[in-house]
Amino acid sequence: MAMVQTHKVDIGGLLAGSGQRILVDDVVALEPFEGLDFPRPASVHLEVRSADRWLEISGEVETEVHGECDACLDDVTREMRVDIDERIDPSVAREDDPFGEGNVVTGNRLDVADLVQQVLLSALPLGLRCKDDCAGMCGTCGTNFNTGGCSCIIGDDRG
Ligand SMILES: [Zn+2]
Ligand SMILES: [Zn+2]
User: Fold this and answer.
1) Residue partners of 83: CB distance under 8 A and separation at least 6
2) Domain boundaries in the chain?
3) What's the gap in Å between 148 CA and the centre of ligand 1?
4) Could you say which ligand is closest to the alpha carbon of residue 146?
Protein backbone atom coordinates (compact mmCIF):
# COMPACT_ATOMS: atom_id res chain seq x y z
CA MET A 1 0.00 0.00 0.00
CA ALA A 2 1.34 3.40 -0.96
CA MET A 3 1.74 5.82 1.89
CA VAL A 4 -0.04 9.08 1.25
CA GLN A 5 1.73 11.97 2.89
CA THR A 6 -0.53 14.92 2.48
CA HIS A 7 -4.09 13.55 2.54
CA LYS A 8 -5.14 16.53 0.45
CA VAL A 9 -7.74 15.92 -2.24
CA ASP A 10 -8.17 18.31 -5.13
CA ILE A 11 -11.85 19.26 -5.25
CA GLY A 12 -11.38 22.03 -7.81
CA GLY A 13 -13.49 20.19 -10.37
CA LEU A 14 -16.34 19.73 -7.91
CA LEU A 15 -16.25 23.37 -6.89
CA ALA A 16 -16.32 24.38 -10.54
CA GLY A 17 -19.62 22.55 -10.84
CA SER A 18 -18.60 19.59 -12.94
CA GLY A 19 -21.19 17.45 -11.19
CA GLN A 20 -18.71 14.67 -10.66
CA ARG A 21 -18.15 12.92 -7.40
CA ILE A 22 -14.87 11.97 -5.84
CA LEU A 23 -14.24 8.77 -3.97
CA VAL A 24 -11.52 8.87 -1.35
CA ASP A 25 -9.88 5.85 0.23
CA ASP A 26 -7.19 6.90 2.64
CA VAL A 27 -5.33 5.83 5.75
CA VAL A 28 -4.65 8.54 8.30
CA ALA A 29 -2.35 8.31 11.33
CA LEU A 30 -3.78 10.12 14.35
CA GLU A 31 -2.13 12.05 17.15
CA PRO A 32 -2.79 10.97 20.74
CA PHE A 33 -5.55 12.96 22.40
CA GLU A 34 -6.12 13.52 26.13
CA GLY A 35 -4.72 10.21 27.31
CA LEU A 36 -6.13 8.26 24.40
CA ASP A 37 -4.14 7.01 21.48
CA PHE A 38 -4.84 5.25 18.23
CA PRO A 39 -2.88 2.01 17.83
CA ARG A 40 -3.46 1.85 14.09
CA PRO A 41 -4.15 4.50 11.49
CA ALA A 42 -7.77 5.24 10.68
CA SER A 43 -9.16 3.92 7.42
CA VAL A 44 -11.41 6.38 5.74
CA HIS A 45 -13.82 5.94 2.84
CA LEU A 46 -15.49 9.06 1.57
CA GLU A 47 -17.69 10.20 -1.23
CA VAL A 48 -17.52 13.92 -1.96
CA ARG A 49 -20.18 15.59 -4.06
CA SER A 50 -21.18 19.12 -4.84
CA ALA A 51 -24.77 20.25 -4.47
CA ASP A 52 -25.48 23.87 -5.28
CA ARG A 53 -22.79 25.73 -3.39
CA TRP A 54 -22.45 23.02 -0.79
CA LEU A 55 -19.94 20.27 -0.56
CA GLU A 56 -21.46 17.03 0.69
CA ILE A 57 -19.18 14.53 2.30
CA SER A 58 -20.42 11.12 3.32
CA GLY A 59 -18.73 7.91 4.29
CA GLU A 60 -17.13 6.34 7.29
CA VAL A 61 -13.99 6.27 9.38
CA GLU A 62 -12.81 3.22 11.22
CA THR A 63 -10.00 2.82 13.73
CA GLU A 64 -9.17 1.62 17.23
CA VAL A 65 -8.88 3.77 20.32
CA HIS A 66 -6.69 2.77 23.23
CA GLY A 67 -6.50 4.11 26.77
CA GLU A 68 -7.46 3.44 30.37
CA CYS A 69 -10.92 2.34 31.40
CA ASP A 70 -12.51 5.29 33.14
CA ALA A 71 -13.89 3.05 35.88
CA CYS A 72 -11.32 0.32 36.59
CA LEU A 73 -8.19 1.84 34.97
CA ASP A 74 -7.59 -1.34 32.99
CA ASP A 75 -5.99 -1.12 29.57
CA VAL A 76 -8.69 -0.89 26.89
CA THR A 77 -8.60 -1.07 23.12
CA ARG A 78 -11.90 -0.54 21.38
CA GLU A 79 -13.02 -0.49 17.79
CA MET A 80 -14.35 2.83 16.65
CA ARG A 81 -16.47 3.35 13.59
CA VAL A 82 -17.99 6.71 12.79
CA ASP A 83 -20.34 7.67 9.99
CA ILE A 84 -19.58 10.91 8.22
CA ASP A 85 -22.38 12.99 6.85
CA GLU A 86 -21.22 16.57 6.51
CA ARG A 87 -22.31 19.54 4.49
CA ILE A 88 -19.70 22.19 4.05
CA ASP A 89 -19.87 25.61 2.55
CA PRO A 90 -16.44 25.78 0.96
CA SER A 91 -16.65 29.52 0.41
CA VAL A 92 -16.87 30.31 4.10
CA ALA A 93 -13.71 30.53 6.17
CA ARG A 94 -14.54 30.03 9.81
CA GLU A 95 -11.65 31.59 11.57
CA ASP A 96 -13.76 32.15 14.67
CA ASP A 97 -14.30 28.41 15.04
CA PRO A 98 -11.08 26.37 15.00
CA PHE A 99 -13.04 23.11 14.82
CA GLY A 100 -15.51 24.35 12.26
CA GLU A 101 -16.20 22.13 9.31
CA GLY A 102 -15.14 24.87 6.91
CA ASN A 103 -11.55 24.50 8.03
CA VAL A 104 -11.16 21.17 6.28
CA VAL A 105 -11.31 22.97 2.94
CA THR A 106 -8.59 25.38 1.90
CA GLY A 107 -8.94 26.74 -1.59
CA ASN A 108 -9.45 23.72 -3.82
CA ARG A 109 -8.13 21.22 -1.32
CA LEU A 110 -10.04 19.03 1.03
CA ASP A 111 -7.83 18.02 3.95
CA VAL A 112 -8.86 14.44 4.65
CA ALA A 113 -6.57 14.15 7.69
CA ASP A 114 -8.17 17.21 9.29
CA LEU A 115 -11.63 15.92 8.56
CA VAL A 116 -10.89 12.49 10.03
CA GLN A 117 -9.30 13.98 13.13
CA GLN A 118 -12.29 16.25 13.76
CA VAL A 119 -14.86 13.54 13.16
CA LEU A 120 -13.13 11.08 15.47
CA LEU A 121 -12.43 13.55 18.25
CA SER A 122 -16.03 14.67 18.30
CA ALA A 123 -17.18 11.03 18.48
CA LEU A 124 -14.84 9.90 21.23
CA PRO A 125 -16.66 8.52 24.26
CA LEU A 126 -16.54 10.84 27.26
CA GLY A 127 -15.27 8.00 29.39
CA LEU A 128 -13.68 4.99 27.78
CA ARG A 129 -14.95 1.76 29.35
CA CYS A 130 -13.45 -1.71 29.11
CA LYS A 131 -17.04 -3.00 28.85
CA ASP A 132 -20.48 -1.50 29.27
CA ASP A 133 -21.02 -3.10 32.66
CA CYS A 134 -17.53 -2.51 34.06
CA ALA A 135 -17.71 -3.03 37.84
CA GLY A 136 -15.08 -0.39 38.52
CA MET A 137 -12.38 -0.51 41.14
CA CYS A 138 -12.01 -0.08 44.88
CA GLY A 139 -11.09 3.50 45.66
CA THR A 140 -9.21 2.35 48.76
CA CYS A 141 -7.03 -0.57 47.68
CA GLY A 142 -7.33 -0.39 43.89
CA THR A 143 -8.73 -3.89 43.44
CA ASN A 144 -10.40 -4.33 40.05
CA PHE A 145 -13.95 -5.47 40.83
CA ASN A 146 -14.19 -7.15 37.44
CA THR A 147 -11.74 -9.76 38.67
CA GLY A 148 -12.83 -10.06 42.29
CA GLY A 149 -13.69 -8.34 45.52
CA CYS A 150 -11.48 -6.94 48.24
CA SER A 151 -11.62 -6.85 52.01
CA CYS A 152 -12.46 -3.13 52.01
CA ILE A 153 -16.06 -3.80 51.00
CA ILE A 154 -16.70 -6.75 53.29
CA GLY A 155 -18.86 -5.10 55.89
CA ASP A 156 -18.56 -1.44 55.06
CA ASP A 157 -19.81 -0.48 58.45
CA ARG A 158 -17.00 1.83 59.33
CA GLY A 159 -18.68 3.06 62.52
ZN1 LIG B 1 -13.21 -1.17 33.35
ZN1 LIG C 1 -10.49 -2.42 48.49
Assistant:
1) 58, 59, 60
2) 8-130
3) 13
4) 1
